[in-house]
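Q: I'm building a small set of examples for a reading group on sequence design. Run inverse folding on the following structure and report the sequence directly after it, with nothing in between.
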């Protein structure tokens, strides 16, 4: 089939609607394992050869492994906002990568996936990286007192979270809205405007960076011999130890499972492992030969295994729906001198895709996505259907038979059949957002990137193509892959016009979804 025939073939997918009827299922426990910066090529079951991920492999070999699944954005905060609310992040101000002292980005009056589970009678919990803000006003939190609003105000019964993310202060766990293990002898102060008098920084005191040095940025306050973004004073014994972050969030999740085995539960388990600063525990050091980044992937797999072991021990594994996915694509050098680039040894975090974290090319939003539910999914399968994390809330609501107001989310319950492997049709389109808010419209046989302009390479350090351009871009899907090496937009003005119009319509209409 020639280029023009493919363009004509792609155009057909804009014209013929169809429907998928959701089917209710027995209510399971639900465990969402949300990795951070885990690339499409970072797992063994997705083709990685330098790192062993036996626990994730086990889920894939007994479940569904999706090869065209997308996060909603190529950065953390907007992806997480979209996943938990079912709303595209560009619809709400303040959903860009959040500072560590950002106010709560999800408003307490916003309906969330945790609310869905609460309506269905579930216990709900969140563990690990949050990065969606806390408190009522940015920069005004008193970290020495209970913080309001917190996760209990958006549907979570229990939470043990990192205040933001590991490269940003405050470097504290927040348990149910208060600093965990609070140390009254070391009051906590946080600022993203100026340093506190007498406090060392990575920029001025590089000799104190005894664990990791920065390659770019990350040269403000020093915690555990690692420079961070933002300024912080105090914390004492409440400060986390980076090497213990994975252990801490995992063991808290394990205890929640053990306490909750008598009633259904939903767990949002958001790891930090592959995000910088990468500083895995000693027992994982050297296991991959790829330095801290590779070893952090092995540590992530251990976390998965520990949760599986607990579910099995408690007799819950058979009817627990487990999803493993990532918030965005990978980045190698993201600000710390951890030899991640020099130690790749042929490993390709992008899995052959173009771009990466921050980018509007495929590696920015295409992520691993594995679904395991033995009660329903009886055989493993590789699924090529187009899938978007925007549907998480609506699909969970469909499984639990909870009604969602159709004009309040951008997802659709119609995708339940694809998520559960009943058909391989998938979405008619997915929308991805890059770091500068350039939007991409990904369809089954073509991908359109809107013209917006910007630097061709991420300007602050990572060696990643952004995909930004002042010209419209159109890439065709050939032999199962979007060919982002040849922009065919000049040869297909009608298709470009149609996809541009569709994207504009999606921007302006909450709840619009056309399932073709």
């Amino acid at each position: 089939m020639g280029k023009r025939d493919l363009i004509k073939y792609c155009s057909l997918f804009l014209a013929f609607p169809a429907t998928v009827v959701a089917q209710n299922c027995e209510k399971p426990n639900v465990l969402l394992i949300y990795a951070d910066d885990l690339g499409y090529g970072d797992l063994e079951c997705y083709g990685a050869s330098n790192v062993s991920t036996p626990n994730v492999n086990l889920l894939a070999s007994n479940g569904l492994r999706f090869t065209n699944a997308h996060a909603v954005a190529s950065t953390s905060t907007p992806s997480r906002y979209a996943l938990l609310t079912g709303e595209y992040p560009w619809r709400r101000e303040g959903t860009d990568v959040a500072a560590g002292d950002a106010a709560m980005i999800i408003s307490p009056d916003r309906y969330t996936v945790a609310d869905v589970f609460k309506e269905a009678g579930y216990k709900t919990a969140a563990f690990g990286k949050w990065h969606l803000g806390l408190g009522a006003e940015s920069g005004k939190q008193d970290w020495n007192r209970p913080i309001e609003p917190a996760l209990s105000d958006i549907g979570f019964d229990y939470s043990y979270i990192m205040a933001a993310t590991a490269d940003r202060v405050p470097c504290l766990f927040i348990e149910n809205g208060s600093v965990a293990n609070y140390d009254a002898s070391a009051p906590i102060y946080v600022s993203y405007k100026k340093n506190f008098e007498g406090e060392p920084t990575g920029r001025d005191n590089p000799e104190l960076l005894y664990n990791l040095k920065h390659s770019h940025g990350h040269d403000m306050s020093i915690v555990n011999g690692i420079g961070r973004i933002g300024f912080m004073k105090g914390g004492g014994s409440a400060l986390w130890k980076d090497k213990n972050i994975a252990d801490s969030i995992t063991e808290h999740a394990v205890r929640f499972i053990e306490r909750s085995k008598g009633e259904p539960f939903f767990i949002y388990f958001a790891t930090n492992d592959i995000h910088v600063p990468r500083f895995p525990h000693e027992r994982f050091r050297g296991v991959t030969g790829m330095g801290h980044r590779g070893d952090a992937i092995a540590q992530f797999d251990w976390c998965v295994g520990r949760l599986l072991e607990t579910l099995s021990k408690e007799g819950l594994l058979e009817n627990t729906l487990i999803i493993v996915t990532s918030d965005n694509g990978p980045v190698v050098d993201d600000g710390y001198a951890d030899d991640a680039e020099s130690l790749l040894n042929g490993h390709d975090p992008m899995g052959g895709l173009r771009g990466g974290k921050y980018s509007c090319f495929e590696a920015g939003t295409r992520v691993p996505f594995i679904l395991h539910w033995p009660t329903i999914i009886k055989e493993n399968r590789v699924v090529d259907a187009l899938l978007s994390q925007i549907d998480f809330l609506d699909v969970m609501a469909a499984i639990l038979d909870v009604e969602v107001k159709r004009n309040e989310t951008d997802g659709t319950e119609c995708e339940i059949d694809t998520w559960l492997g009943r058909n391989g049709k998938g979405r008619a389109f997915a929308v991805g957002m890059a770091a500068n808010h350039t939007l991409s419209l990904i369809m089954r046989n073509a991908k359109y990137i809107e013209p917006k302009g910007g630097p061709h390479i991420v300007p602050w350090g990572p060696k990643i193509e952004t995909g930004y351009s002042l010209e419209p871009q159109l890439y065709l899907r050939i032999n199962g892959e979007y060919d982002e090496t040849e922009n065919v937009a000049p040869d297909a003005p009608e298709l470009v016009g149609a996809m541009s119009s569709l994207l504009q319509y999606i921007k302006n209409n909450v709840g619009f979804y056309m399932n073709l």
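The chain is about 20% helix and 15% strand.
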